[in-house]
Design a protein that fits this description.
The complex is a heterodimer of chains A (372) and B (571).
Chain A: H1 10-15, H2 29-49, H3 62-94, H4 114-143, E1 150-157, E2 160-164, E3 172-173, E4 176-179, E5 184-190, E6 195-199, E7 204-208, E8 214-218, E9 224-229, E10 242-248, H5 250-262, H6 279-289, H7 328-337, E11 339-341, E12 344-346, H8 349-352, H9 356-371
Parallel strand pairs in A: 1-5, 4-10
Antiparallel strand pairs in A: 1-2, 2-3, 5-8, 6-7, 9-10, 11-12
Helix pairs in contact in A: 2-3, 3-4, 6-9, 7-9
Chain B: E1 3-5, E2 8-9, H1 27-32, H2 37-65, H3 77-112, H4 121-140, H5 164-192, H6 205-237, H7 250-284, H8 291-304, H9 323-332, H10 334-348, H11 357-380, H12 382-388, H13 392-422, H14 428-455, H15 468-501, E3 533-534, E4 547-548
Antiparallel strand pairs in B: 1-2, 3-4
Helix pairs in contact in B: 2-3, 2-4, 2-15, 3-4, 3-5, 3-6, 3-7, 3-13, 4-5, 5-6, 6-7, 6-8, 7-8, 7-10, 7-11, 7-13, 8-10, 10-11, 11-13, 11-14, 13-14, 14-15
Classes of the chains: A alpha+beta (372), B mainly alpha (571).
Chain lengths: 372, 571
């Protein structure tokens, strides 16, 4: 028979942390708990019913699902934030050391509480499992969203967007048009550096990476005009790199599409009035439209593009960057069509908002510079 | 080997310090090229503080520019891009990482484990001197055109960047080596040089945090070094690693960069966790709640931190299914982090709390860091991240974890260990004012960025939507940030006047129980005349001090109370 163990003294029990010191939740613990519940319920109600956390209309198909996730996250965050903040402040006030307490005053000497610790590990774990399931479900829905009824390519460049539609020979610059309620696939890529393609109202975004095609699927549901915003830093014009997407009714979209097919040349069409070009008007235009990227120095004085001060008689560069001779017609053609080649990218006249008369004035100004 | 207490064996190194190497007397060997970890720690603090001043002023230039939506404040887009890129680079690599590891790790950690220095003092000297050199290279890039593609320097845009981008590569490479060397040094120091009896689970929690951090710096920084070397070679020699038009991959950079830079987030926050875990029990007069859970959760965060980097790249273009493991592991990190937060709250509960400045900052940290952690959920959930990526929501999130987390923790640490560094007390009233101004101005600066981002304001823009709503919240954030900067003047004046004429602190002004408070202030050369044996964790305020054979400084133990109801030691 094993020897009977003698009963342990309370000091020994304390030493082995079997006897816990008396717990004291403080005078207002339960009212404060009630306050946390009430405040969290109010915040949850607002999060669920107001257009919050994202204060934008859902204008396309993944948006309602994404908003559901936002609302779930918002409600969970409100509860956790209130629990942590309000209890912390409450403990800080209730358990503050009284003013005249002797230096030897100490708090309750408790090291842990396994049951409490189990619950505050288990409950967040369950919450995270639920959150992960919801996120994966919505993620899978987005991945499996039907697209492909219309396929559009969006191409980013410094600093704008171009869109290629099936059966259109020329890319569309500037505004993107999408027909309402049509499952659409958008392939995004870039011609130069990494850009972002974000339509906030549809909650879709993908990076436009040169050499890589990323895919977005969206079904626009609300006709209207929405923003397209570049979200990856892409250079000097990053802040201004945004455009619009117009969600049309099917009829309007067809009308617009037919127009695009008719005028495949972009720009305004018609001849460029080079002979009427005025150098002084061109100088003012150059300051507004060109000087962000071009200096009026020699070719080698680059900002983004080369210096244009000697474009018509530069012995170091007897030809233009596209290999043609520096005639007024060839310079006007580059300004009109834009340029994309091994030294960079320049937007077309249409992108830059230049009329044919403007081009004539600009060429006259550049010619006047080269004469000096 | 002798047994000095039940279960405590001494090693051959546990001896009275028979002969002390003479303390260097020349100014250069004492203050410039010192191998004393305390001096090096303070050198890190001064250098990091100066860089903090510069990087903080860059932040104010950013907010000044954004007072008006169309760039009317006179800062050109080119300058703005350089300014925000340098602000981010400097704050991460030249301020927070050197301060949390180099400054506090060096000054506090060897004292807390009862060591006389770090394991490799000369390596420590080398690691420190790489830091100002790297900082000078980085900031002098302004002379030739500073890097302008953000602190992430994504190619291909960074390949076109100004010449300073190459200097950026060199500077960050150097600070990376410095960080790696410090990591190795700390791992060996913590593993081999603890006082006898200080088992791993008796180490102060700040030491645990530094241990986890050192592992991260040691392993992760190599990936950054490789990425930087490749970027350098591409910029200087034209080796096509990243340029897609020549067969390179821009996404390769992102993977290698974030393989370092996500763990770097934990390099920046874990030591702040450690500081808070020291401050809370000291001023609550209570053992830290759940010691082992806090210690092990640091290690869990460090380990998990290696497998979440691609959550920065959900929109970059990768195999779609790969997003799921990265999302789920990211969410799992919230569990050890939540355990820490609840344990800190439970440390407050039932305490006898003294509301000193470090305690205010530690509690403020608890609230702001929780807020930053919760927005982390929003970013981890992939479908929500599709909306938030690259917007001001991200800016708000990481300022809540870096300023509301790391920097608040740093403030707590500076006020807490200031008496040990200088031997003098700071002005308590001024410190508390500093806290309240910082706390309010910080929240007013960064809280509006959440909704600015969700409504459609992208990051890294010098101009934005001129509608009144955007202008109002940007101006609100800007003006708050000026107040936040102003509060730094109060901080600087407080430290300066304390250094000049502060009250003499004595060895242990807080009644704290970790080893650094057992010796005189400022800590003497060689720290411990006699290395003590350690019998328990340091946090049992109800028990006698758990140190044997310690020749404590006069008055060091007086402030540590014993409580009549808990007479039995727990060791």
């Amino acid at each position: 028979m094993p020897p009977r163990r003698r009963s342990r003294t309370s000091e020994e029990l304390l030493a082995q942390r079997i006897v816990k010191p008396k717990t004291n939740l403080g005078p207002g613990f339960w009212p404060i708990t009630a306050l946390i519940v009430v405040v969290s319920l109010i915040m949850s109600w607002f999060t669920w019913n107001a257009g919050w956390p994202v204060g934008l209309i859902p204008a396309g198909d993944p948006a309602p699902a994404t908003d559901f996730l936002f609302k779930f996250l918002g409600v969970a965050a409100a509860w956790i934030f209130n629990i942590v903040t309000i209890y912390t402040i409450y403990f800080g006030i209730v358990f503050r050391q009284p003013k005249n307490a002797p230096a030897s005053t100490i708090g309750v000497q408790i090291h842990d509480a396994p049951v409490l610790e189990f619950w505050w590990t288990a409950i967040p774990t369950i919450l995270i499992i639920v959150l992960a399931i919801i996120s994966v479900k919505i993620w899978a829905d987005i991945q499996n969203t039907q697209g492909d009824v219309l396929t559009v390519e969006a191409i980013g460049y410094q600093f704008g967007f171009q869109f290629r539609y099936p059966k259109l020979a020329q890319p569309v610059s500037g505004t993107m048009h999408l027909p309402v309620n049509t499952p659409t696939t958008i392939h995004v890529t870039s011609r130069d550096v990494i850009h972002g393609f974000w339509i906030p109202e549809m909650r879709i975004k993908a990076d436009m990476v040169p050499g890589l095609v990323n895919t977005l699927r969206v079904t626009p549901t609300v006709p209207g005009t929405y923003r397209i915003i570049c979200t990856e830093f892409c250079g000097l014009g990053h802040g201004a790199m945004h455009s619009t997407v117009v969600v049309d009714t099917q009829q309007d979209f067809s009308k617009w599409f037919a127009q695009q097919g008719a005028s495949t040349g972009g720009g305004g069409g018609g001849a460029i009035p080079l002979a009427q070009g005025k150098a002084d008007v061109g100088k003012a235009l150059f300051g507004q439209k060109c000087s962000a990227c071009h200096s009026t120095g020699p070719f080698s004085q680059k900002i983004v593009g080369p210096g244009l001060g000697m474009i018509f008689n530069d012995p170091a560069h007897p030809k233009l960057v596209n290999g043609t001779a520096p005639t007024p017609q060839d310079v006007a053609k580059i300004v009109h069509d834009g340029y994309s080649g091994d030294i960079g990218v320049m937007p077309s006249a249409q992108m830059n908002g230049l009329s044919n008369a403007d081009i004539g004035n600009l060429v006259a100004y550049l010619a006047s510079l080269s004469k000096k | 080997m002798a047994t000095i207490a039940p279960g405590v064996k001494t090693g051959p190194y546990h001896a009275v310090l028979d002969h002390i190497h003479p303390e260097p007397t020349s100014f250069i060997r004492k203050y410039i090229f010192s191998i004393d970890h305390k001096v090096i720690g303070i050198q890190y603090m001064i250098t990091g503080g100066l860089f903090f001043l510069i990087a903080g002023m860059l932040a104010e230039v950013i907010r000044y520019t954004l007072l008006q939506p169309n760039g009317q404040m006179g800062i050109s887009a080119a300058t703005y891009n350089q300014v925000y890129s340098m602000h981010g680079s400097a704050m991460v690599w030249m301020v927070i990482i050197p301060l949390v590891t180099g400054a506090f790790g060096n000054f506090v950690m060897p004292l807390q484990i009862g060591a006389r220095d770090v394991a490799f003092p000369w390596l420590n000297l080398l690691a420190f001197w790489m830091f100002p050199v790297a900082g000078i290279i980085l900031f002098s890039s302004f002379l030739v055109g500073a890097p302008d593609a953000g602190w992430t320097e994504y190619p291909p845009i960074s390949l076109q960047g100004p010449p300073g981008t190459t200097m950026w590569c060199i500077a960050i490479f150097l600070i990376g080596i410095s960080s790696t060397l410090t990591g190795i040094n700390f791992i060996v120091t913590i593993y081999k040089m603890r006082a006898p009896g200080m088992t791993l689970t008796r180490m102060p929690l700040f030491v645990w945090a530094q241990f986890a951090t050192a592992g991260l710096s040691f392993i992760a920084t190599t990936a950054l070094a490789a990425a930087l070397l490749a970027l350098f070679c591409e910029r200087v020699f034209g080796v096509p690693f990243y340029d897609p038009s020549r067969g390179g991959s821009p996404v390769l950079w992102q993977h290698m960069f974030w393989f370092y830079s996500h763990p770097a987030v934990y390099i920046m926050i874990l030591p702040a966790f450690g500081i808070v875990s020291e401050v809370l029990p000291t001023f609550s007069r209570k053992p830290i709640f759940g010691y082992k859970m806090i210690a092990f959760s640091s290690v869990a965060i460090a380990l998990l931190g290696f497998s979440v980097w691609a959550h920065h790249m959900f929109t970059s273009g990768m195999v779609p299914w790969l997003q799921l493991p990265f999302m789920i592991i990211t969410m799992v990190i919230a569990i050890p982090t939540g355990v820490k937060i609840f344990s800190w709250m439970a440390t407050l509960w039932g305490g006898s709390i003294r509301w000193t400045t470090p305690m205010l900052f530690a509690t403020g940290f608890l609230i702001t860091f929780t807020c930053g952690g919760l927005t982390g959920f929003f970013l981890a959930a992939v479908p929500a991240d599709y909306h938030e990526h690259g917007t001001y929501f991200v800016v708000a999130h990481f300022h809540y974890v870096l300023y509301g987390g790391s920097v608040m923790g740093l403030f707590a640490g500076v006020y807490y260990w200031w008496p040990k560094m200088t031997g003098r007390m700071y002005n308590e009233a001024m410190g508390q004012w500093h806290f309240w101004i910082t706390f309010i101005a910080f929240n007013c600066t960064f809280m509006p960025m959440h909704w600015l981002g969700l409504m459609g304001m992208p990051r890294r823009v010098p101009i934005y939507d001129p509608s009144p709503w955007y202008v109002f919240w940007n101006q609100f954030a800007s003006i708050s940030s000026f107040v936040l900067a102003g509060s730094m003047l109060l901080f600087a004046y407080n430290l300066w006047s304390s250094f000049r004429s502060g009250k003499i602190a004595g060895p242990n002004p807080w009644g704290a129980r970790t080893l650094e408070w057992m010796i005189s202030s400022p800590a003497p050369y060689y720290n411990f005349k006699k290395i003590p044996a350690v019998l328990a964790t340091p946090y049992d305020f109800g028990n006698p001090l758990p140190y044997l054979g310690l020749e404590a400084a006069e008055g060091a133990t007086e402030a540590t109370p014993t409580h009549s109801s808990h007479p039995v030691p727990t060791y």
